[in-house]
Design a protein that fits this description.
Strand content of chain B: 25-35%
CATH topology of chain B: Rossmann fold
Structural class of chain B: alpha/beta
Catalytic activity (chain A): a ubiquinone + reduced [electron-transfer flavoprotein] = a ubiquinol + oxidized [electron-transfer flavoprotein] + H(+)
CATH class of one domain in chain A: Alpha Beta
CATH topology of one domain in chain A: FAD/NAD(P)-binding domain
Function (chain A): Accepts electrons from ETF and reduces ubiquinone.
Bound molecules: flavin-adenine dinucleotide, iron/sulfur cluster
Oligomer: heterodimer
Number of helices of chain A: 15
Keywords (chain A): Electron transport, FAD, Flavoprotein, Iron, Iron-sulfur, Metal-binding, Oxidoreductase, Transport, Ubiquinone
CATH architecture of one domain in chain A: 3-Layer(bba) Sandwich
Strand order of the largest sheet of chain B: 9-8-7-10-6-1-4-5-11
Protein name (chain A): Electron transfer flavoprotein-ubiquinone oxidoreductase
Order of helices and strands of chain B: EEEHEHEHEHEEEEHEH
Largest sheet of chain A: 8 strands, mixed
Structural class of chain A: alpha+beta
CATH superfamily of one domain in chain A: FAD/NAD(P)-binding domain
Helix content of chain A: 10-25%
InterPro entries (chain A): 4Fe4S_Fe-S-bd (IPR017896), ETF-QO (IPR040156), ETF-QO/FixC_UQ-bd (IPR049398), ETF-QO/FixX_C (IPR007859), FAD-dep_OxRdtase (IPR006076), FAD/NAD-bd_sf (IPR036188)
Distance between the termini of chain A: 40 Å
Shape of chain B: globular
Largest sheet of chain B: 9 strands, mixed
Distance between the termini of chain B: 62 Å
Amino acid sequence: MTQSPNDAQNAVEREEMAFDVVIVGGGPAGLAAAIRLRQKNPTLGVCVLEKGSEIGAHIVSGAVIEPKALTELLPDWKERGAPLNTPVSEEKLLYLTKQGSIPVPALHLLMPQMDNRGNYVVSLGDLCRWLGQQAELFGVEIYPGFTGAQLHIEDGCVCGVVTGDMGVDRDGNHKSEFMPGMILRARQVILAEGARGSLSHDAINHYKLRENADPQTYGLGIKEVWEIPKENHRPGFVQHSFGWPLDNHTYGGAFLYHFGENLVSYGFVTALDYSNPWLSPFEEMQRTKQHPAFRPHFEGGRRIIYGARALSEGGFQSLPKLTFPGGVLTGDCAGFLNMPKIKGTHTALKSGMIAADAVSEALRSTNPEAQTYQERLQNSWLWSELYEARNIRPSFSKWGMQLGALYSGIDSMVFRGKAPWTLRHPHADNQTLIPAKEAPKIDYPKPDGTLTFDRTSSVYLSNLSHDDNQPVHLKLRDPALWNEVNEARFSSPESRYCPAGVYEANTRDNGEKYLQINAQNCVHCKSCDIKDPTQNIRWCPPEGGSGPNYPSGM
Amino acid sequence: MKVLVPVKRVVDYNIKPRVAADGSGVETQGVKMSMNPFDEIALEEALRLREKGHAQEVVAVSIGPQAAQDTLRTAMAMGADRAILIRTDAELEPLAVAKLLQAVVEREQPGLVSMGKQAIDDDMNATGQILAAKLGWPQGTFASEVIVDNGSAIVSREIDGGVEVVSLTLPAVITADLRLNEPRYASLPNIMKARKKPLETIEADSLDVDIAPRLKVVSVSEPPAREAGVIVKSVEELVNKLKTEAKVLP
Ligand SMILES: Cc1cc2nc3c(=O)[nH]c(=O)nc-3n(C[C@H](O)[C@H](O)[C@H](O)COP(=O)(O)OP(=O)(O)OC[C@H]3O[C@@H](n4cnc5c(N)ncnc54)[C@H](O)[C@@H]3O)c2cc1C
Ligand code: SF4
């Protein structure tokens, strides 16, 4: 038994267990890394921690995926029964006006990034469940319901991960079933927590990994799964839109995919560098369903799942340094998503695989840092893919949606991504709001209860589990700052951007305003950790197994 | 003494059950399954009896498909010493479950069967009672406290408006209510150890028990959607609505 340095004040005795590699996060990046490690060396002790109650429980994605990386990882994925059952059959990209829509013609020529021929529509949650089973067949130990709560740092080197305590009450006292977290020692830690991972955030700050990179910029994806009548189902139909209902300065748009057994995946991504504090990504997502280009797809159907998750949009310019003593960053928590393609699954898989190669080499050396990771990445298709896509996302922030789209076409067609300049991401997403009184209010339609819904009935479909009697996992570092900044300047933007209705600006009897935090509703999208103007809100992982339980199909 | 703990694999209590599109039943395909929460409580009680020295061995038993193995592994990760799977893909009613459990009891000869008061999927609340009757054993149902002492068990039962205390001579059947205890978490090392604990599989067919269903499901439907609320402006309007629309006032 030892203490982690951070526990000194709490005097918690922690049991220890040792592995060769501990992986934090059971998404595509973490599972690919795990499988690859055991493929390279079947004697390695590899453990995956997942904060969801099972693998897939916290995964939200589109998802149209490119099978390239999966084929490299498990060439026989078909025989192994991977749930890639719906090839893309029909594709549309629409520019929306309030009532109309203009299709972008000859998509594969104009925007080669958007060409989805050869790709599959999947439930990424289901793909991860399957990857988890494959990983277990390779001898990986997977522990769902356990969070990575802290990095365990000794002598400047990450030497493992401390798992979250279980059975602590709201006031921090130990309940009868209290179980202290353990120290899982590891010679290398692979962080694969997805966008805005909490340990990744700590590692990036502690080791100053972002010193030579642009700030990371994010989008908030909010998604519903519908079950629709068989006669309306067009398996493999894929539609994306941009334009209405967002204004020309806000990056984002909707996606709609038909897949599986009569399922439709519908979602809306809003870039979190938006400036109008009155904007509500949730309501943008709801009202887009009423557009004639989307509405018919939901006819006669019922909504069965709801969820939300941030995605990393910064791309190449925002990649931090990827290694630190004792560990590496992979997938979305590093920022490997390809934004013009809106795809991060194949890049997460690939970065996990490359990280595994570098880590298994580092395990054979005395160097605590997996130094070849960077070089291996630079020699891979992943690097060139991200490099070529690098100017597209920032061009939209710079020139707005219409000129951005024009620029993107030129960048892709004329320069083929090799333009001799790189556009920057000048701000972090928390710096972009303008004062509420200077911004136009947005009048959102009331939900009708059949096609459009409110937050409460939506979150009900995320199957949340959250023991109320546990420490609040969303904290205001300084409550007074909320009144000064969030309320006075921006009129409580969190009560609009949080897709789960966690934040409510309330008034006490004495007229004083305060922020009510309904932490039990949190779907772990991480938007508040990203968008809060003064970074006053801190998202920490709650007790393992808390949060959404997204079922199959998500 | 040996304690036998039957555990059922059910749709996780956090999941909002959804009726399958064809109306045949509740969707279980790809849905998260876990141990029936009342069975967790029954198991916790058995583990505490063992820790207090009243029991030497805790055996978990589940009846169901191959996947019910996961539930048994969870039981062993919490602390059960070994597990038995009575494997069948058939839909089972409480009578059939009780008969199969009776066969297991005859084989294992436990001094106590500690089980949940009901399963949260079909809410039958009958298996424990039927099992006790079949075995001719005393039963302490809806237990909120269990004290084992010298061949007997004092069981506090949650009943309407209070608590009833009964004394049972062992062997007996106890069914656990919500307030009996707070089940423990399975720790990482215990989850690992559970992978190596013995899990025996017995085919239900080999037990020579008639498990054919006696009931026929006519239909399964979701509760009607709740209508949106309205905000009333005055007490008069409220009273008026309660009279004319809700018809709860004369
Ligand atoms: C709405 C939306 C639509 C998308 N559409 C597509 C698409 O069509 N095609 C495509 O290819 N990509 C798409 N993406 C992107 C893709 O989903 C991500 O790039 C990909 O999932 C990243 O994989 P990852 O493994 O890095 O992280 P994630 O998939 O986010 O997985 C991280 C895992 O780690 C767990 N975790 C996090 N922190 C901890 C911790 N501290 N302790 C324990 N566990 C932890 C999480 O619960 C999660 O299971 C979309 C994303 C969104 C949000
Ligand atoms: S509280 Fe934060 S992390 Fe949780 S759902 Fe709301 S915005 Fe997302």
